[in-house]
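The following block was generated as part of the benchmark described in Methods. Ligand: pyridoxal-5'-phosphate.
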Amino acid sequence: MPIEVVPVNSLRRHIEAIEGQLTDAANEVIRSGYFVLGPNVKAFEAEFAGYCGVEHCVSMANGTDALELSLRALGIREHDRVAVVANAAMYSTTAVTACGGEPVFIDVLADEATMDPAALAAALAAQPLKAVVVTHLYGRLAHIQDLVEQCRRAGVPVVEDCAQAHGAASVDGRKAGAFGDIGTFSFYPTKNLGALGDGGAVVCRDTALADRLRQLRQYGWSQKYTNALAGGRNSRLDEIQAGMLRCMLPLLDGWNERRRAVANRYSANIHNGRIALSAPAGQEYVGHLYVARTSERAALQSHLQQAGIQSEIHYPIPDHRQPCFGERFLATTLPVTETLCETVITLPCFPEITDEEVQRVIDACNQF
Ligand SMILES: *Cc1c(COP(=O)(O)O)cnc(C)c1O
């Protein structure tokens, strides 16, 4: 009999447990006749702002719009320099170039794969930056207090990309999105808080900034048919998706805890000199992805595949080497980022993975 494959993630299992609740919420929206910017969106925005510990939440159509409209709300325009990391699948870089801005790539820390505070300090000293985007990659809080502190001193606004880190918190309990000037989220189905389709949001404390973001997500309207703000578009969250997210938000902390427990079991029980792991983590990590490193990645992937275990690469090509840029960043080198792109490997980690499956992954890694 062929062995059952351990998947990297299973949305089918994830949704199965709450299917009844989701169906009821969807039916309520269908019967209400209110489908865009209605009561569910308003309620979800209030609930999610409260969850993040900030004043405002402005929901949007997806996480990429959330990033781009945040930069527009901060006034980023042609030729403005914006610092980003290059190991996070192009999302923030795309947002910068969409505004006509110039990405300034900052290298990352080898162990955590998040922005290196020393590298940011060097970039701030070398040139004027108009904004910094900090990505809380894999569900791990970056060294956000240090990074924000540096930017405050330089008068540079900070956008936190929290698309993989819903609920990640510092030791004093501050959540991802509550440190910088703006926090952006994606609710793509595979995220820690994921809708049944696309969705996104921005959180912030400043009321004027929230007003601008609300205008930008709806054509730049200050009121109906008055296009007050340039750079606007249609980027609204649907009532049905807001309804789905309202069912799921109360479950997020439990899901994150299970993800972290799985990740920490890997960190404590995989012992193999050829596989490097991050140390067991606390609430600063919400286990969006469990990413190990090995210089023998192809061999490990095929070993795992033979053991019936799926693995993935997050992410194989650094932003400055993406084909769309041609030779534009040929002179840019980011040693840590480039090494990580060649060595990272993602192991199965999701709330519904069974203890037996986790053990199979551990055994297979130890037998490599
Ligand atoms: C998923 C993701 C995004 C983009 O979100 P979409 O909703 O897919 O547009 C942005 N940043 C990071 C780090 C992500 O993981």
